[in-house]
Design a protein that fits this description.
single chain; alpha+beta; 6 helices; 7 strands
């Protein structure tokens, strides 16, 4: 009985030591946390400016190789590390980093013109001549739009932006206009498993 009384104060002081050490290590981790890079800020901690849009192409002015850069401003009182490894606290007015946004390769073919040509002069093959397919345009011209069936099919394909310019570029579509993005399934696509009943 005497031996069990001796262990109690040791056990109690050990529990206090363990509690103190866990609180201390947690506070040390929280207070000494390294400031993250400005590029790794979460949504809501920064605001990116809208890109300057070129009137003739309806794409960002600094579009190079399918990418454009926009300036991003961290929110007020956000601290992050700049590319030169210095920590900075922002007031909401300074540019903290640049972010890339996707842009499209355009070469002068207007979506509106292609749809109008397909609708009104598609039976003459004007839409295919305009998009750079002279052989199909001549064939449509000689067969009066494949007796109307080819004209209807071409109108649907051009309106859905499935048929585009022959050089592989995209249509010029208003920046906030009716542009379509093709969805594709690759090996990197996540497929939700079906539930079996």
């Amino acid at each position: 009985m005497a031996s069990s009384c001796r262990w109690w104060p040791c056990l109690r002081s050990g529990m206090w030591t363990l509690l103190f050490y866990s609180v201390y290590s947690h506070l040390r981790l929280v207070l000494a946390e390294d400031v993250d890079s400005c590029e790794h800020l979460r949504l809501g901690q920064y605001l990116c400016k809208d890109p300057k849009i070129d009137e003739s192409t309806q794409e960002p002015e600094n579009c190079r190789e399918m990418r454009a850069w926009v300036e991003c401003l961290p929110a007020p009182n956000i601290s992050c590390r700049l590319p030169n490894r210095t920590e900075f606290r922002f007031s909401g007015e300074e540019v903290g980093f640049n972010k890339t946004i996707p842009c499209r390769n355009v070469s002068g073919y207007s979506y509106k013109v292609a749809v109008a040509l397909s609708l009104f002069l598609g039976w003459l093959g004007a839409d295919r001549f305009y998009l750079g397919y002279p052989a199909l345009g001549l064939l449509k011209f000689c067969t009066v739009g494949f007796c109307g069936i080819g004209t209807l099919i071409d109108f649907i394909l051009i309106a859905m932006q499935i048929v585009g310019p022959a050089d592989g570029s995209n249509y010029i579509v208003d920046y906030y206009g009716a542009r379509l993005t093709r969805l594709s399934i690759t090996n990197q696509t996540y497929r939700k498993p079906h539930l079996s009943l």
